Amino acid sequence: MRTLSAYLDSLCKKVFQAKTIQVELGRSITAYAIKNHVLGFAESKRMILKIFHDYKCKTISLVGSDTTSNTATARSNCIDSILKFVLFILMYCLSGELQIKICGIA
Question: Global pTM?
Answer without folding.
Answer: 0.41
